[in-house]
Here is the input.
Amino acid sequence: MGNEFDKILKIIQQDLPLVSRPFLTLAESVGITESELLKTIEKLVDDGVVREIAPIYDSKMLGYDSALVAFKVPQDKLQMVADFVSSCPTVSHNYERTHPFNLWFTLAVPPDTLSLEDVVRLMAERTGTLDYLVLRAVRTFKIGVRLDYESAHEKESVGFTHKPYKPLKEHEKEVVRVVQGRMPLTERPFFEYAQMLGMKEEELLNLLKDLKERGVLRRISAVLYHRRAGFVANAMSVWNVSEDRVEDVGNFMAGFKGVSHCYERTTGESWRYNLFAMMHGRSEEELYNLAKHISQEKGLDDYALLFSTKEFKKRRIKYFSEDFKRWLKALT
Here is the structure.
């Protein structure tokens, strides 16, 4: 791929500016026309490199409860169980991984419904799953995939700011309900959203800026198909770190470009690992080497790499939709 292509792939993974013509602003930053940029993005989508350009919201700041869940599933039942799990509208990621707990998925549950634990219990009962984990995030050190590096060992400066939760007003929920999913690849996408909402474009942009300032809207950016972008290896590294060292180690891990997400999570009787770092690289060897480097630098010996072997689902949640309630009603 040419240098211009690499620049485009890099900028669309960053934050789309909240201005009337965001693609014009991005195009000018790499010295091409707005039309050329939009055509390139369309080609990347058609070629299966880019999934979409879409808003990324913080589910907890929207009032949703969320957790990482793992099921231990017999291999001959894995596809059946994975299909059922994927049928849940608020499961966004669902993967087979290299571990006895072999099915891993992220679940978000909207407010004013069953608890997350009750939903997981119902899912386990429905699939005959006896052994499962519900791992909640305790602290976040990094979140956000940007596949724009040559080596997973490259470093970057990361700062994660925790914002206080503030319930959304009804008109804000309606904005989220409309401004989600695949963004229109047009000169004025926010104008199109504003028309759907019966608002002025400037009013919508100001509201989105406020949601971003409050931590509700993380960013608007491209989501890639990792393998087609050259990042064929994906591992969830899990680490057993003493509580007094979690902050230091978490911040250290978050500083690597090859780490997209880094969380401290809850543990349990059958799960001792409390620090999670999602790693992306061009080979499994690269990720083994990165984990080894972290292990040696921080003196950590109790860790594992869970490589993803099959993607069952990766899709943005449709927030403030009735889909989950209908799914849950059918389940119960």
About this structure: The CA atoms of residues 59 and 108 lie 7 Å apart. Residues 284-298 form the longest helix (15 residues). The chain has two domains: 1-47, 61-158+226-314. The longest strand covers residues 303-314.
